[in-house]
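worker-3 :: picked Delta-aminolevulinic acid dehydratase
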Amino acid sequence: MERHFPNTRMRRGRATRWSRTMLRETVLTPADLIWPLFVTDGSAVQEPVGSLPGVSRWSVDGIVTQAREAVKLGIPCIALFPNTQGHLRSDDGAEALNPDNLMCRAIRAVKQACGDDLGVLTDVALDPYTSHGQDGLVDGRGYVGNDDTVAVLVDQALNQAEAGADIVAPSDMMDGRVRAIRMALEMNGHPNVQIMAYAAKYASAFYGPFRDAVGSGGLLKGDKATYQMDPANGDEAMAEIALDIAEGADSVMIKPGLAYLDIIWRARQRFDVPVFAYQVSGEYALIEAGVAAGVGSREGLLMEKLIAFKRAGCAGMLTYHAPIAARLLGG
Ligand code: PBG
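worker-3 :: tokens ->
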């Protein structure tokens, strides 16, 4: 009987561990990770966030400890989000402009402790400071006004830069805010503060646990569909990204992550700035729920998702799993 051989044996390369290692196309390192952290008032406070098992809000001293841990693990950057006390929230979110607000105190403390070893990324948007939970100023008809909001966001970004933020990340999805913030940074002596634009941010169902963590969830009236994008749209994301780059963004972010790998891939093919993804709170919670339900190991479920972001073209990922992933990667 005549024997038949496959023309090509794809399995030859997979037959041994050394060969699989040698042929691996995508490599994940702790340097790919940005770690989002929640800040709260007080000292020596650690408050677990119920909807994000394993994640806590820390008072500023605890944030500094986490920041030092990030440096030790080889994580290059953290992102800070404040849980503003209720009595400091207002319709106009004025607390965002207070040079001594929780956020600025945390930025200063981390920069003092870690200096150049760790980048601090800050979110530019008013939702942790407003009594209505929207990212901007709401007019009489309930609409978040664009240009009025941009004027406040510029002052918020400057306030963060003055406190020492290395990257300001507008997450508000107003039109024209990247140019306005870039101009203000230049004119006020912050030429090296980077802008990472939440360029394609979708009106997603996956932000719920985050809103718990910053305390805006219960306050939010309505949704954010007049500024965040429709999950059905991809071409529109390319237009958003092109605008943010033209306005002066140094890097762009796609958010959420896993359900938008096509957007990451398209952005990477089309633009020459670094593309980041935010593996958001709901994605974190789903992985943890999967682990608890016995779907698989944390390492397995998490690392497969993180490598998918890299494979799709990400320069890096924001993930609440950053310290766990960094430890698994030997950081
Ligand atoms: C606020 C902001 C949100 C997130 C980051 N910045 C929530 C929202 O837009 O409602 C979500 C992050 C997450 O879910 O992990 N502008």
